[in-house]
């Protein structure tokens, strides 16, 4: 069996008196596509934010291989090869799609939002090599014709795809996706499913996927961790998880 790449050990996150994530342990193996599912408010985004350093755990530890990520700044975690997308869109409206991708390509800085702001000026330079790679990444999503369009000219679904392309441009080892199917049309969902699969096969990326759309989860995930009110209630293959009475109850009770 392949070794774990990401390891959560008894990780908790409290917001004041609210326990958003309660002593959760799980591992993401190298090359795996692991789903993180659960009703709204169950703690998916919080776990994503803990993995990428946007928030620090109240208790517990997170490791990538031998490296302890607990309390590490997001840009450092990004530099170790962890890319992410956000549940809310975060591209730069004043830049073209190609420039948004070029921002992510500058070596060693990852895809962090703040780091990107600092690099805006240099990204405006027309870098032929960066443009070529941007087009190559956009082609994965069928969006290469938009390379010179402002990011805001795209639909919400297309902008979500651009965020995925931007993350891939950083050549991540682990890609953490927070509800990438939200707002996508049915054909775009199919494209997303194909692209997530290719992230692993073509780019060797390990994926942690918080997702609400079950068709995506059931098609692409090797395994799912199911959350309910911040508790882990199942860790199983998608087909087993959806048949688990606790999981059914969590979803029906939501
Ligand atoms: P999900 O992504 O599964 O919908 P979240 O991780 O966003 O769930 O939220 C889990 C719980 O933590 C919710 O009750 C939410 O209101 C709460 N929460 C999330 N982030 C914060 C925050 N920054 N401050 C206070 N409460 C938060
Ligand atoms: Mg969320």
UniProtKB/TrEMBL annotation:
GO molecular function: ATP binding; ATP hydrolysis activity; L-isoleucine transmembrane transporter activity; L-phenylalanine transmembrane transporter activity; L-valine transmembrane transporter activity
Keywords carried by this UniProt record: ATP-binding, Cell membrane, Membrane, Nucleotide-binding, Transport
Domain named ABC transporter: residues: 6-254
InterPro entries to which the protein is assigned, alphabetical: AAA+_ATPase (IPR003593), ABC_AA/LPS_Transport (IPR051120), ABC_transporter-like_ATP-bd (IPR003439), BCA_ABC_TP_C (IPR032823), P-loop_NTPase (IPR027417)
SMART domains reported in the protein's UniProt record: AAA
Pfam families linked: ABC_tran (PF00005), BCA_ABC_TP_C (PF12399)
A GO BP annotation: D-alanine transmembrane transport
GO annotation, cellular component aspect: plasma membrane
CDD domains: ABC_Mj1267_LivG_branched (cd03219)
Name of the molecule in the record: ABC transporter related
Organism: Verminephrobacter eiseniae (strain EF01-2)
